[in-house]
Amino acid sequence: MKYKFYIDTHKGATFFYILSLIYFYNAFDNILAMVYLAIHGSYGFFWVLKSKIFPDKTWEIKVPLYYGFVIWFGLSLYWIAPWIITSEFFYDISTKSNINIIIASGIFLYVLGVFLHFTSDMQKFTQLKNKPGHLIDDGLFKRCRNINYFGELLIYSSFALLSMHWIPWVVLLLFIILVWAPNMIRKDKSLAKYDNFEDYKKGSKLFIPFIY
User: What are the residues whose beta carbons fall under 8 Å from the beta carbon of 37, sequence distance 6 or more?
Assistant: First the structure.
């Protein structure tokens, strides 16, 4: 199977996993759980649609079955957050006084992250198709070479924020260190073949716009 098969199936299953947690813990009156279902569940569906409409060639390679299980296990670490919210294992939601601020902040981060992630991926797909062999250094990529990853950072930050626990933040940090950062470094090395890359690199940030 291709790399993307395991990613897409996991992303697509997220909504149903969260819904099953809500049912198991009878968390239908848990506003955090319902908001989390809406944003993380919809993100999973958006990802599957993106994979069908404007796929990333990075995920088109075939991988062995055992590696598919590794992918599923790794991505399942993101499923800790909805378990924390629905089970209320670490805290009682009724004791949280700032929940409205948390929800509003989480939704804001999610919407901004979805915009940056999916529109930048669409820009990359379109430009690679229409102008192959050209460095993508304009549009959303003008000031940030990995604006799509920054969008994902905002998306997963919204999930971690809604969990109101430190564990999902640690999971996100692990993904940044072990997966995202190496990918961004490899991308820079690949882009170095373009004559104007050094100028582009000097005028842009690697990951976080205007900061780093």
Answer: 15, 18, 19, 22, 82
